[in-house]
What does this fold into?
Amino acid sequence: MGDLATWGSVVVVVALVAGWYLSFTASRIDRLHHRVESSRASLEEQLARRAGLAAELARRVADPHGPALADAATRALAPPADVAELVQSQLTRALADAFAEPADVDGLRTDAATARLLDDLGEAAARSQMARRFHNDAVAQTQRVRRKWVVRAARLAGHAAFPQMVELDDRMPPGLGDGASRVP
It folds into this structure.
């Protein structure tokens, strides 16, 4: 009888530990999904700021780059509810064309308001890069946990969509450098 009670105690302890582990893991997955959603919202905010500044600067950039930049910025401001990677990458290429060389930017920096917009755009471009990296890190961690066999077997992620990385061209336009002011 003693052995049966011992085995019963072992089974209860194992069940409690397994239940705690499943509960802990489900809670962790929930936190990771929340982090992905938060980082995605931050990324969308930073990309919208970059596009807004690009649209404002497009009015001050001469042909042929001004209209192309304005068009790309307008499309980047009007994507669907999520990040439209192709549209954002096209904006990056338009920025690279408009501000390819520091000399292209130096002519615009003679006006103080335009110089401030250029600095703000450089900062927004850097922040959007960081936001994308943070988002992709959050996605990678969530994917790693969701691929574990126990998570899949116990369906701990529920009906949440499998998070996806955001892959877009968000290089800093060469002429903007690090966004630091070069006003004389």
